[in-house]
Design goal:
Layout (H helix, E strand, L loop, with lengths): L26 H4 L7 E8 L2 E4 L4 H10 L4 E7 L3 H11 L3 H9 L5 E5 L2 E12 L4 E11 L3 E7 L5 H9 L2 H4 L3 H14 L1 H21 L4 H31 L8 H81 L14 H22 L4
Parallel strand pairs: 3-7
Antiparallel strand pairs: 1-2, 1-3, 4-5, 5-6, 6-7
Helix pairs in contact: 3-4, 5-7, 7-10, 8-9, 8-10, 9-10, 10-11
Length: about 375
Amino acid sequence: MAAKKRSWRRQPALAPAPPPPSAAPSARHTEPLDGASVVNAALYRDGVRVATPDSLAQTFRQLREYPDGMAWIGLHRPTEPELHSLAEEFDLHPLAIEDALEAHQRPKLERYGETLFVVLRAARYLDAPEEVDFGELHVFVGPDFVITVRHGAAPDLTAVRRRMEESPELLALGPEAVLYAILDAVVDGYAPVVSGVQTDIDEIETEVFRGDPEVSRRIYELSREVVEFQRATRPLIGMLNGLMAGFTKYRTDEELQRYLRDVADHVTHTSERVDGFRGALTDILTVNATLVTQQQNAEMRALAVAGFEQNEEIKKISAWAAILFAPTLVGTIYGMNFDTMPELHWTLGYPFAILLMAAVCVSLYLVFKRRDWL
């Protein structure tokens, strides 16, 4: 990034020429905005805060009074008029303003003339619901200004500002130092998320082998968060490599070069961990599917065994019912009250009936026994 500033900013506005009586003052310099989305705005000179404006309009005026100063403006979900006011004052590209308004952008680094536009995806781990919350941060970095537009709770830029103000020698290096401090804060914020996701994966592994029926849903939910985490971390590697490639061209301070390389190392390590998480979850999902299939097969075998045993019992009951049905049939026929029935007055009629019933029963018993029904 070029170290020089816009030439018009080098001219102090301590004694401006009075406007003509008929000319109306510029609205963007005399009418302060609502400022509800302005979290913090400050002017710095040689790494020391020299002014704390109350509105964007006041920030613009005071920055003109310090041609060698730097403005650091922090916004949270700004309105469209506020962003357009910033765009007019600092000559921000319309495409970058459009991205900052809409949010939901992928992490990226774009250069518009002397202004860098950076989109970052911050993350934080929520212990109570055991899930990852993602935020979005847009950063405009110019020769004498840094504008942060935050969408979401993360990251905590108040801590970044406080740390930089405690190191005036670092803050004195200019807007690039602020950008690298923001990058470092976003990347450091990934560490608790990595730890929390690792804990979740360990718990899921235990639940899988314990046979928890709800584990599949938890695996899919965590996999979705890990994919989102990958989308937040992977592009940072290319972004940081792009910044490091411009060290010589934009005469980046050597201290900031070391600072950025350290951030790049942390990003690479985090990205590798996240890639490992996705692989681990894929393996866990495969193991869980295998265990579920084995459990289903075991249940089906148990049902088959139970059905077979039930069929065996039914066959036994049916066989005995058939055996008992034969003498019942004979006894029922000869028990009918008719005078003209054959063998009714036969002396050997009763022994014959008993012998017939016994023969039928024995025959049926042998048949069923041969077929393993009994």
